[in-house]
Write a structure and sequence with these properties.
Radius of gyration: 22 Å
Largest sheet: 2 strands, antiparallel
Order of helices and strands: HHEEHHH
Strand order of the largest sheet: 1-2
Shape: flat
Number of strands: 2
Number of helices: 5
Low-confidence stretches: 1-19
Number of domains: 2
C-alpha cells in the first residue's frame, strides 16, 4: 500500500507514488530570478541606506530553500515494493512561494466548492486597500483581523438591509482570503 501525503509528511490527501518525479524549484523562472537578482537588490538598497523589512528578507531566504533536498528532506519507503522516494521539505510560508500557496488555495477552494457554495447563496466582494495600508496590514496581523471584522460587519449589515431582513432574522458568514 502506498503512503498518503499525510503519512509521508506532505500534507492531507497528497498522493505519493514511487514514480513521482521530484519537483525541482531551482529550474523555475521565478526561482532563478529571485536567486540571481535578490543579492544585487539588497546591495542596491544598502547603497540607498535602506533595507528590506525582516519578514520580506526571511520570505526570500525560505523560498530559496523550499523544495531543495540540501535543506532537508524526508525519505519515504513503500512496504510493498521497497522503492524509496526523497521528498524535500517545503518552506510553509504564506508569501509568494507557489508550491505552498497553490496547495493551500486548491485545498481551500475544494472545501468551499464542495461544502459551502452548493448549500448557501454567495456573493463575492473584493477589498483592495492603498499600498501604505497594505504594508501596515502585512506587518500587523492583529490589525488585519480587526479591519476584516469591521469590513465584514459593514457588508453583512448592508446585505441584510438590502434583502429586507434584520440582524435578528438573518444569518451571514464570510470567507476571507488574504
Amino acid at each position: 500500500m502506498l503512503p498518503t501525503g499525510k503519512e509521508a509528511g506532505l500534507g492531507v490527501g497528497a498522493p505519493v507514488s514511487p514514480v513521482d518525479v521530484r519537483h525541482r524549484p531551482e529550474r523555475t523562472l521565478l526561482y532563478q530570478i529571485v536567486d540571481e537578482y535578490c543579492p544585487a537588490f539588497k546591495q542596491y538598497l544598502e547603497v540607498q541606506d535602506a533595507c528590506l523589512p525582516g519578514y520580506v528578507e526571511q520570505e526570500f531566504e525560505d523560498y530559496l530553500k523550499c523544495g531543495r533536498l540540501e535543506h532537508g528532506f524526508l525519505r519515504v519507503r513503500w512496504e510493498s515494493c521497497h522503492a524509496a522516494h526523497l521528498v524535500a521539505f517545503s518552506c510553509k510560508r504564506r508569501g509568494f512561494c507557489p508550491s505552498r500557496g497553490a496547495r493551500r488555495m486548491a485545498e481551500s477552494a475544494a472545501v468551499l466548492v464542495d461544502e459551502v457554495f452548493p448549500e448557501q447563496p454567495v456573493r463575492q466582494c473584493v477589498l483592495s486597500v492603498p499600498y501604505p495600508l497594505r504594508f501596515l496590514l502585512a506587518s500587523r496581523p492583529e490589525v488585519t483581523g480587526r479591519v476584516l471584522g469591521i469590513v465584514y460587519l459593514c457588508l453583512a449589515t448592508h446585505l441584510i438591509k438590502q434583502a429586507g431582513f434584520t440582524r435578528k432574522t438573518a444569518q451571514t458568514g464570510a470567507v476571507t482570503l488574504i
